[in-house]
Task: structure prediction
Amino acid sequence: MERSNIEKIAQSAEDRLLLAKLWDKMNAGMRKNIPAATCFLSPRELEMAKFLFGEQEGLYAFGGYGDAERKMLIFLPDYLDEASLYGEDSPCVCLRAAFFQGDSPSHRDFLGALMGAGVGRETVGDICVDKGSCDFFVTAEIAPYLLQNFTSAGRTKLHLRQIPLSDVHIPEPEIKEIRDTLASLRLDSVVSSGFRIGRSLAAQYVTAGKAAIDGLPCEKPDKPVPEGAKISVRGLGKIRLAAINGRTKKDRISVVIHRYV
Result:
């Protein structure tokens, strides 16, 4: 674990600034043997942080629930165990916004309203919208402000309260199952099948920097996609390569793709 590795890992000035902040925060906690936590990180930012810190004892990536996409990097000293991440003093807090079920605010509505309330994107984790309520994750520092000031998302009135992380409700995503056969598991091929667009157009989305595999940006159309990988494409949505079922008699690859709707 060396601070000098920041220059090797960072791909931009913004990356260097972020990694330096993460280093200072985590290193201070490790030296003093006290809890320390970062802001919420995107999958790409978290991957860079893992390269920087390596496998450090007491270091956790935590977003409030098991399948969280945005996570905080948290250091726990030797007198605390992993269960404390879900306790009252956790640096990650879940707020539940209740609203009239006749309204249907989207993830975009909630994110836009939170940014409009003056909070930074890095203080907000996953936003899980369901019928009549939305559970979303924020840093403990920003929670009191939101409990007093976050009252609406678009035209939808909200009633906010903090809930224990053990009571979080993550709605089952609606999916459309697509069964297809592919010549290969290239990224552009999977995107083409999952979104029902031509392969050349799929390749254009990828090379334009609009695609990501498991949250990590990818600009290579020929990148192999592993089974279980989630692919997001700006402007199209999100899919998951749910299953690879082997080859057909015509030597094509049978796949099952889930498209999130």
Observations:
- The helical segments are 6-9, 13-32, 43-53, 107-116, 143-149, 187-195, 199-207.
- The mean pLDDT is 93.
- Residues 3-85 form a domain with the Ribosomal Protein S8; Chain: A, domain 1 fold (CATH 3.30.1370.160).
